[in-house]
Specification:
- The complex is a heterotrimer of chains A (216), B (222) and C (267).
- With 216 residues, chain A is an all-alpha fold.
- Among the domains of chain A are: 69-126, no CATH class; 127-178, no CATH class.
- Chain A has helices at residues 4-22, 26-45, 47-64, 70-89, 94-126, 132-147, 150-159, 168-178, 180-204.
- Chain A is extended and about 75 Å long.
- The two termini of chain B are 14 Å apart.
- The model of chain B has no long low-confidence stretch (mean pLDDT 91).
- Chain C has 11 helices and 6 strands.
- A 6-stranded parallel beta sheet of chain C has the order 3-2-1-4-5-6, sandwiched between helices.
- The model of chain C has no long low-confidence stretch (mean pLDDT 95).
- The chains are: A mainly alpha (216), B mainly alpha (222), C alpha/beta (267).
- At the A-B interface, helix 1, helix 2, helix 3, helix 4 and helix 5 of A face helix 1, helix 2, helix 3, helix 4 and helix 5 of B.
Amino acid sequence: MKRQVPLVLCFVFGIVMILTQFSPHSFSQGVYKEVISWALIIGPFALVLATVTLIQTHTARIRRRTEHWQYSLVVFAGLIIMVLIGIPFGPQNTIFEWLYNNVQLPMDATTFSLLAFFIVSAAYRAFRARTFEASLLLITALIVMMGNVPVGDLIWNTVLFWTPWEDGTSWWRQWILDNPNLSARRGIILGVSLGVISQSIRIILGIERSYLGGGD
Amino acid sequence: MDFWSLIGIWVAAFLTLSIYSVLYRDNPFYRFAEHLFVGVSVGYGIVLSIYQGFIPLAWKPFAAAITGESMSGFIKLIPICIGLLFFARLSPRHTWLIRYPIAILIGFGSGIAIPKVLRANIFEQTHGTIAPFAEIAAGTLSGWDIFEAVLIVVGVICTLTYFFFAVEHRGPVKWLSKVGIAFLMIGFGSAFGNTVMGRVALLIQRVDFLLNDWIGAILTIF
Amino acid sequence: MANIDRRIVFILVALAVIIPMLLSINLPVSVSEPTQKFYDYVEDLPAGSTIMIAFDYGPSSLAELNPMAKALLKQCFDRDIRVIGITLVVDAPTLASALIQEVAAEKGAVEGEDYVFLGFRPGAVQVILGMGTDIASVYDTDYNGTAIGEIPMMQNITNYDQIDLLVDFTSSDTVESWIVYANDEYNQKIAAGVTGVIIAQMFPYLQTGQLVGLLSGILGAAEYENLIGAPAKGMQWINVESFVHLLIVVLVVIGNISYFIHRTREE
């Protein structure tokens, strides 16, 4: 009941979705569409998991008075304010949108923009031409970086004007992306896709069961 | 500019600077903003999930079935009940019940992916690698284009060889694999160069906000 | 040299952004082939065509994607191309809705006739596949709650058959989902505008034609603004970006010189 039924459900839904894609019969197509609509309905409930986990984590921090537990109260304050305004009045309520635009949006954008500082600092400290492979990575990164900005072509056209390329920095950037980068990425796509397919088959056949988690 | 817009700019500027304060060192302002961000984001997510997920996809068909508006809504009771099993996560004794909806979603996702990933990512990508050679036969490609087509084939084969662990990397396989690493390094170098552009753009946007919107608003007062 | 306080590097980065922004530098931007293909595809669509734009990004990526989305919306409204906006990302609806309304107000586009924003639905794969059968089965109303049957521009639109181009502005793997589930299954033409992190992995799809065009981060936005003749934030920011990239190149060169000097001394 606890493990066998989920395995059977996974097998049935997996096989149905494979077979219905190969059959143009109206019954088959009807089943295909119905299962998609079922998945659409079940999907939103999965969000409960993330919310419950977050609430449990911060409740535990407050209960155990771990270091900086007071900030977990800030998490709840933010969450409760958004829910108390958003649920009765809807996401297009003026106050809800104001909170999104002036609290959530700037913090989200700023948090990710911190990475600009860290990526520059890391490049300065760790980007070294230690080996042939590392040199290749470094040179490519520098060409792409300079090809991405207009000053790259300005420098090329001023210093390397005698070469056959006009706007050479952006030309080489594009060539790298279109050729060696493309082939490496394609190798990765092919490898990952073969992995996805074999993993999907293992899941449907019940060989891969890690999604069931631990316990009986 | 109205009063609430002005207050909004000041709040956003305060929170922006609070987060940037971590660049000096960890401090209470940063921790406050970081935790507020988590709470507000989850709160926003809950509201949007209810209004844009539960209500249109689960509640409305269910309500239509109850009111007799659409009898087909009754069949939707099955996925709704399955979805409700996610709430079993709240009870340690019944938490195993969430395996049912997870198994269905995973089975659905796996079944739907197999033929489509095969076509879109394996057949199409393989075709894209070989297709230029048809043009070589037709004589429509220049010498440079042929070089590029060959380079791509070599790159794809060598990259795949690097990931192929079924045989030991010795002899010719080792050399193919080494060439594969070179292609991968160029690929990762490209990704790094582009990632730098992306991250810096995020910073520029925030500085633009602080200089033009916030300080700009202060200057208009004077 | 490599052991200097990293806060000094942070200050240099901040100055490399602040000073050029105050100076308003304006260098010319050339247009790359993927951007040109994107622009040409939209430009070749006849008036009255319909584009679906998926705003699959949240506030963390708006710096890179909002400028290009804005430029595309301007081009669409200028050319009488109808726009259907959707999103597969939960934290996007408020910013996407505001962006469409801002450009629509500027261009005099009418909601329900020239554009509609349908909002968010959870479950990317299910949403993409569901709209292939019937958009109304996924979106029974628009973001404002208006029934889809009452929206004038949606009267003759049932599924992807009536969508001439799907544009995914994204910071994640949603573009691959669109390719696998909409392009492959329904032969939907797809173009993408992506953040810097995922630009490099888009090129195999561009070569096969699974993507008809690609806008690459803030550079793509600047190129597109250049093409539509409406310079805005993209052009301004890519110029500022130049100085930070220069700083990084200088720092990496200094770091490598000090590394080689150190290594030579050790040997």
